[in-house]
Write the structure tokens for this entry.
Amino acid sequence: MAYARQGDWVQIYQVVLPAGERAPQVPPETMQVPLELKVKGFLLDEQAQIGQQVAICTLARRQLSGKLVAINPAYGVDYGLPQPELITIAGELRGLLRGEHDA
Amino acid sequence: MRDTSYQAVMARRPEIIRRATTIDYCEFESGSIAFDYEKMMRQAAYDIAEVAAIQKETAIGATPLIELKNITRLVRQIAPQGKGARIFLKDEAANPSGSFKARRASVSVYHACKHGYPGVIAATSGNFGAAIASQAAMRNLSSIIIQEVFDSRGVCQPEIMEKGRACEAYGAEVLQLSVGPELFYMFLLVLEETGFFNASLYTPFSIAGIETLGKEVAEQTKQYVGCYPDAVVVTHAGGGNVTGTARGLRHAGCDKTKVIGASVDLSGLHMASDNDFNRKSFTTGHTGFGVPFATNPDRVDVPRNAARSLRYLDRYVTVTQGEVFYVTEMLAALEGIERGPAGNTSLAAAIALAKQMSQEEVIVVQETEYTGAGKHPSPQLTFAKANGITVRRGMPTDNVPGKTIVIPENPGQISVKDIDLDKMRYSYIRNALSQNLRPNLADIEFLAQETRLLPAAVEELANQIMSEK
């Protein structure tokens, strides 16, 4: 199983408010689930496995603790797939501007 | 040990906010509905010349005003004879953190630094977080950004993920939360623990920071075409962009310029719903913020919201998600400028509005925002499809928020839908009277300023609302 060493960039998880103890104004589907928190920082423990309670030091130099959920987590953002509904638009509009089609 | 339950922290809100803003809002209160808005703006913040000097220190402002010549030509091809206003774009993506929010963040961070706060905190999933983190980096302060990011399945909006990445790049600690309004509870908790400054979107600092944008729009348009703009279109969410821009335009002497708010139509989707969260492709600039914040402005993280859009809006229109994606492609393809997409909400509206205006008129789109992985039409539509949304080409009127995104087939299909400002004024007054207070003379005068109605009209509406109760 993957483990992190002191100083590794990791992500921790906490339940901030359990299901049922949420703000009174939230809709029912939100009330049924907990308010969860994820935050990244540098591992303070010497060594830890995924799922263990650990402490981290964040970029704002605060110490926070929670369950270790990821080691060097991916950014998770990309450009997705080229979209067929979008890729012809440039050609269509340039054609209109050149008077090749009726607007 | 302090009680950190939801109720206990919310009850400590006034004390936490006072310590975290340096503003004693009681100074401006009357004890009734009315409060002295202009006094608050004057005393609590800085004047426009001071703001410009503060912003110059961190390379904000003086962004280019670009004439969209090809889009204007295209609009004239499809508009009725003699119609098709010149369209200009204020390229706010040229600010350090890539959006106009750098202006909004700058004064708070300067003020926090001046008053010896060790850091700043903002609760935002948008460009404002990156702006706060960037400004804090420039002034050597710590920053913490609190975001609403994922639903109960752990699924994240790509645009918010990108903003979180940007915040980290600028050195911020990013607290990523699941869906819900308790973001604000977390915000208070962290303010209390750290003693950091509340870099709220809604303090006078934040709004004063945007006034320079309105002033630059006025001055640059005058320099470019010889007159002030006939209309300025502003992407409208919490109201700060409209308020700050309009105040800046007025400061520059633009008395006749129409201020038009534009939002993406997300009607029918609940903003605090775990189910609806990932069924929208826009995380800001939409009606889910635009309508409730205009009609109940003080529902924010400070006692009095300095963003009061009904004081400044001449018109409020909506466009669809599909239209905004379409004009985002158009801006890149015809003008060679890749920006947005959320910031292009006002561009979509401006294209529709320009078709109805004469060729002698000038319409300005007052912002752009940076684009990048996650924050671009293709990842957003990829994400929408993965979450069960139908995407197709067709008539924008077939868009259904949360179900179908329809990308227009041609620019002639781009249009705006008006939101009735009188109905919003009525809602505003009804909300203001919700405490069952009988308004006094000062309240009537205040409500008239808030809604741009005559005092007699406010009185009549107030009587009607009170009698309905």
